[in-house]
Automatic annotation (TrEMBL):
Belongs to the class-V pyridoxal-phosphate-dependent aminotransferase family. NifS/IscS subfamily. This is cysteine desulfurase. It comes from Bremerella alba. It comes from the Bacteria. It holds the Pfam family Aminotran_5. GO terms for molecular function: 2 iron, 2 sulfur cluster binding; cysteine desulfurase activity; metal ion binding. SUPFAM superfamilies: PLP-dependent transferases (SSF53383).
Length: 391
């Protein structure tokens, strides 16, 4: 099968593997063991990786906390802020289309007495479906709002929210902004200064790095973000996240970020071409396709490699069973420890049927035009077959 599920996770780039290898068998010291050369070497690797990751997102090295991935980063950011005594109140603003790794920790807090406002983005049919309007956010902020959490790019429909504008509003109102940038870092330019985010989550395995390593940017300057750690122990990372550092992961993350940044411009153009080829090809052979998310022409509003669409008059489950020669996702594979229909597609107003018969493509670094032609054929053949069955 051909892999098209790059929003769920990515193949590790062989160049990333190459960079990581020495940390397994040579530079394997504990970076906290500064009494000997092994530890010192690892510590140096961690520090240079941290510096290069920080530079890539416009941060400074001490503003990066390493975690096990974006789920942990989101939890640390949200719980870390909300566990502290806050100047303002217990109100949080987020969006209905956030990842579960934001929605679920907030739901936990809601049960403890926090008030959560979940804003609804633009609905299906709108040219910018899925996008949150900055004005809507402005109106939702109250004098007791402690925190705003809005993702940068959505993992299902690829919509890119106006984070810089949202950051400006939060700054004016004196509210902390957390941004889940898991699908953005490595794909589109991300600069924490320009965006005005106070906390920002990211993860290596979405950008051709290894699984199990990610980071949280925690702003130092200005209204210092006070964060309660979630994991206590040896006091690593200035107590923010105890535990022996994942040196192979950290080195891999740094190399993944470096490569993605170096190749970003060319790569996003290439991905957009493949995406257009896929969408045109599908529409030549299949009638009644409905694009989910922003129009493809709105290049600034949508991740280049994302295509998500509903196929009417087919059963969603049957469709998935008949496209097994390609790896795509229906809804979000990230949350399918318990497969449910996509809360994102439902939140932009799709019917349950269309939600079920939607396919998500995440086109990635290793996909080719030949593979896209193949995918068109696989999907078109499956839809033909299924529609004939019900005709
Ligand atoms: N946030 C978003 C937007 C994601 O796409 C994902 C992965 N599906 C996560 C968070 C969770 O990331 P991780 O797998 O690194 O925990």
């Amino acid at each position: 099968p051909i892999y098209f599920d790059n929003h769920a996770t990515t193949q590790v780039d062989p160049r990333v593997v190459e960079a990581m290898l020495p940390t397994f068998t040579q530079a394997y010291g504990n970076p906290s063991s500064v009494g000997h050369l092994f530890g010192e070497e690892s510590k140096r690797l961690v520090e240079s990786s941290q510096q290069s990751i920080a530079t890539a997102i416009g941060a400074s090295a001490t503003e990066i906390v390493f975690t096990s991935g974006a789920t942990e980063s989101n939890n640390l950011a949200l719980s870390g802020v909300l566990s502290q005594r806050r100047r303002r109140g217990n109100h949080v603003v987020t969006v209905t289309t956030e990842h579960k790794a934001v929605l679920d920790p907030l739901e936990q807090r809601e049960q403890q007495g926090f008030e959560i406002t979940r804003l609804s983005p633009r609905q299906a049919g709108d040219d910018l479906a899925g996008m949150l309007d900055a004005d809507q956010l402005r109106q939702a902020i109250r004098s007791d709002t402690a925190l705003v959490s809005v993702m940068f790019a959505n993992n299902e429909i690829g919509v890119i929210h106006p984070i810089a504008e949202i950051g400006q509003i939060c700054k004016e109102q004196g509210v902390l902004l957390h941004c889940d940038a898991t699908q953005a870092v490595g794909k589109i330019p991300v600069d924490v200064e320009r965006l005005g985010v106070d906390l920002m989550s990211f993860s290596a395995h979405k950008m051709y790095g290894p699984k199990g390593i990610g980071g949280l940017f925690v702003r130092k300057s200005g209204p210092r973000v006070r964060l309660q750690p979630a994991i206590f122990g040896g006091g690593q990372q200035r107590g923010m996240r105890s535990g022996t550092l994942n040196v192979p992961g950290i080195v891999g993350l740094a190399e993944a970020v470096r490569l993605s940044l170096a190749e970003m411009n060319e790569e996003s153009q290439r991905l957009a071409q493949l995406r257009d080829q896929l969408w045109l090809g599908l529409n030549e052979r299949i009638t009644g396709l409905q694009l989910n998310g922003p129009q493809l022409e709105a290049a600034e509003a949508r991740l280049a490699g994302n295509l998500n669409f509903a196929v009417d008059r087919v059963d969603g489950e049957a469709l998935m069973m008949n496209v097994r020669e390609i790896a795509v996702s229906s809804g979000s594979a990230c949350t399918s420890a318990n497969p449910q229909t996509s809360h994102v597609l439902q939140a932009i107003g799709l019917s349950e049927d269309l939600t079920r018969s939607s396919l998500r493509f995440g086109i990635g670094r290793f996909n080719t035009t030949e593979e896209v032609d193949f995918a068109v054929d696989v999907v078109a053949t499956a839809v033909d077959k299924l529609r004939k069955l019900i005709a």
